[in-house]
Amino acid sequence: MKKHILFILPYLNQGGTEKQALSLIEGLQDRYKISLLAPDGKGAPKFRALPISQREYTKWEINVFKGFPELIARIKEIQREQAINLVHVHGAHELMLAVYLVLKKVPVLYTVHGFHGLGAKFSYQMSCWFSNWFADRVICVCEAEYNLLRDVGLSEKKLHLIYNGVKEPILDSDKSLELTKKFQLDPTNQIILGTAARLDKAKGLTYLLQAFAKLQGENLRLVIAGNGDLEASLKQEAQALGIGDRVIFTGYLDDLPNLMQLFDIFVLPSLQEACSLACAEAMSQGKPVVGTRVGGIAEQVSDRHTGFIVMPRDPDSLAAKLAELIVDHDLRDRFAKDGYSRYRQLFSSEIMLEKTAQLYDQMIAT
Question: Is-contact 218 183, C-beta < 8 A?
Answer without folding.
Answer: no
